[in-house]
Design brief:
By secondary structure, the chain is an alpha+beta fold. Helices cover 26% and strands 51% of the residues. The longest helix is centred in the first third of the chain and has 14 residues.
Length: 151
């Protein structure tokens, strides 16, 4: 368990404070994806969106969501937090990482804040030039690193 926590904390530190990521959501077997400005706060991935947009209705119908960037895929459960301005930690970090988006959208009446609690993370790693699949099973606190075998 200590090994998992150490490796997971290193992953989160490497991730940094904020990144632009692809958010995938679905409703009635229809999946859609879009770029989002995402910040990391206490191990959860936060973003904001307008209640009139499709991703909002998809998340209301199905809280399962995925985030992706580069060689990292994150699967988790998404929950609505409230209005972004009601969360000072989010506002501080979001303004620091994405000032333009913060200034343009955060104070709008229809904006809502969401947090994705990660359940499973997969990342491709190259060890001495050899591809490996690194996994973090957050629910069960299990870490894995396996060589990718094509045969």
């Amino acid at each position: 368990m200590d090994s998992f926590i150490s490796k997971y904390n290193t992953f989160l530190a490497d991730f940094g404070e904020g990144r632009k990521m692809v958010l995938s959501t679905s409703e009635n077997d229809k999946v859609s994806s879009r770029m989002m400005s995402v910040v990391l706060i206490n191990g959860e991935f936060y973003f904001q969106t307008d209640i009139m947009l499709r991703k909002y209705s998809q998340l209301a119908a199905n809280p399962n969501a995925a985030l992706c960037i580069d060689n990292i895929q994150i699967e988790g459960i998404c929950r609505e937090i409230g209005h972004p301005l009601d969360n000072p930690d989010f506002c501080s970090k979001f303004q620091k990482c994405f000032k333009g988006s913060f200034d343009a959208y955060t104070a709008l009446k229809n904006e809502r804040l969401f947090a994705v609690k990660p359940l499973f993370i997969e990342r491709w790693q190259y060890v001495d030039g050899v591809p490996h699949i690194e996994t973090y099973d957050i629910e069960n606190m299990r870490y894995g690193l396996e060589k990718y075998i094509t045969e």
